[in-house]
Every structure is written in C-alpha cells, then in structure tokens.
Specification:
This protein is about 40% helix and about 15% strand. The chain is an alpha/beta fold and about 400 residues long. The protein has a 7-stranded mixed β-sheet, with helices on both faces. Strands 2-1-3-4-5 form a 5-stranded parallel β-sheet.
Amino acid sequence: MKRMMFALAVLVMLAGSAYAQGTIKLGGIWTLADITGKQGSAAARMAVDEINAAGGVLGRKLELIVADDEGKADKAAAAVEKLATVDKVDVFIGGMASGAELGKIPAFKKYDKVVMSTGAAASTVVEKALGPSPGSDFYFHLHPWDYNQGASYLEGWTAINKKDPNIKIARVFLGYEDGAFGQSSWVATKTLFSPSMGFTIDGASFKSAAFGGGDYTAMLEAAKAFKPDIFLWAGYDADALPMLEQAKAMKFSPGIFLGAPPGWPQNFGDSKLSPNVTLYGMWSTAMNKNNPASDKFYKNYVAKFKEEPATYFAPLAYSAVYILADGIKAAGTTETAPLIKALEATKYASPLGETITFSPSMIIKHQGITRQKILQWQNGEQQVIWPFEAATATLVYPFPAWK
C-alpha cells in the first residue's frame, strides 16, 4: 500500500512538473497567400525560435500555431474558434486585412485572451466594433489606424512641399479597392485632404486582383482626366504590377505615383515598372544602414529563409512576438488581467525604427505605432524620403513620363 501511495505521489509530481514545462502557445492568424501573411508568419516563427534558443519565457518554450484566414471574415472567425478550443492557445497574434479582422472580433471578445494585432487599419469598422475600454482592453493594436496613417501622410507631404515648393500636392486622386480597407481609406483621405485644407480631391474604386479583380481601366481613366498632383492607390500587393502596366499603356504619369498596399510583391524592385514609384510603409532595407535592430533582423531573416523580407509586416510580426514575450515574462503569467498591465509598460526598440509603446487611440486604450513613412523605389530598393531625420534619399520628382 505504501509503495502504491509513493508511486502515486511521484506521478502527481511528474504531472505537475510537465504542466509547468508546457509550452506557451501563440495563436497566429494571417492571410498566408498574401506576401504579408507569408513573411509575417515566417518572421514571427523566427522570433519564437530566437526566444526559445535563449531559454524561452518563464522556463517554458514558446509555440506558434498558425491558421490561415484567407483574407475572409468567416475563415478568420473559424480560425479564432479553432485556436481557442482545439489548440487552446494562450494569446493571439497576427492579422492584416480589415475585413478578416472584423470577423475575428466577436470570438476574440468571447475568449477574452490578449490579442497582439499586426493589421487592420479600418477604424470605421474594426476599431468601432472593438468599442471603448474596458471591453476592448485585451486588444493591443500595433498597426496604425487609417486616420493615424492619413495624419502622417498629410504631415509628410506638407513638410516635403514646404522644403521644396516645386513639388505640387494640391490635387489628390485616390484609387481604392472596394472592400473594407479601401472604403475606409477613402473616407479618411477625403477627411484629411479636404478643401478646407487647400486640397482638391477625387477618387474611384476598383476590384482588387487579390479578390478576383485586376481591371483598373475605369479607375485609371478617371484619375488621368482629373490630372492629379498625387495619384494614390489603396489595394493589395497583387494590384501593384498590373496597375502599373495599365497606367503605362494609357500613358498616365502623375507628378507623384503613390501606392499604399500593406505589402509589395516579392522582387518588385527588380521590375522595370518600379523606379520612382512612391509608397507608404513602416520599414525598408535601406534602414539597415542606421538602425542596428533593423540590420540584425534583416540578416537573421535572410540567413534563415534565403530571401529578403519584402513587407514591413515581417518586422512588425517579429516585434509582436518579442513584445508578447517580454510582457509574459514581466507578468509571470499569460492570464489576461496581469498580462494587460505588464504590456501597458512596453518600451520595445523595434527593427521598424520605432520604440513601440501603447497609448489610447480615438476609441481603444492600447494603440501602438501611429505614424508611417513616405518611401520611394530607387534602384530596386525602398528609400526613406520622410521623416527627414530617418531619410536615406531625396524624392525623385516628377514621376517620369512613360516611354
């Protein structure tokens, strides 16, 4: 009998030890067919591997379990349910498309686990659905909202125009994909680049190639007729090359040809269509020259995956894992309330050239990055044009006429 009792006690001790050493599970949700999801999830996995190689968190290894939302709200909601109930993840991470993120929110609220969101800029739908504190305190949003982006764009172009008045910015045309991301971009752009601010603005929608579209003719014809100083399009990486090909075919050369997709196609810089295309973003390889964190991330990524990171969603997802790991370490747990409190003290010097902290947005309590950069494709690489303190090149202007 004593032997049986001793054996039972040993089993209980072993079970307790095994539980203590169990992995901390991160539930990652991305659109894996898109460059942002492909490289974002890869960079997140790289961060997990680095942290585990350094001893893990609280004596436990991190485990990243990835689900594909396919950029669709229903698939995204199903991904949250599966990760929460089958995989029993401790926290959530990832995201890109606003429409997909909107589908996740009811499930996120149901499970009340900390979310470290790397995407979703559409404030009018996503942020509004989250609602104000305390109901949305579990949600930490790293990516700027559309109004954050718009404010930084207005700030940037105004500064560029002030520095060189020959660069015209008064007439703005927005071509926007007809989903949640594009519609929200249109609302934000009209508000910021308004007549009261001295701008004349127009726009037209298109169906993104990412969702079965790819004919931009009507939108580009409307833009050409408008004769904009800045032509801006808000869509996805799949739209970049075909839109440029169609613009070239109709000889549409605005003063500034500007794209605002979440990511660009792999090797876009090698295309003959890429020179002097301007873009919005949060990171580029050019930043490696003056940012040690960026340089380290870049070198590790290339060594591990044998390709260059082509989207800022890679260092953004990488940063998200490290922020979560630091928060769990500080909290001593993955339990929601103490982890929220620990994450509120975040000060993470990221590869994006930003020290990431969290502060209230217009609605939610925990907003991270609030500013994007203006960049330009030059000699196959994205160069930082603004903010000037981070600049790696000056703007090539005007956008050259097609030959």
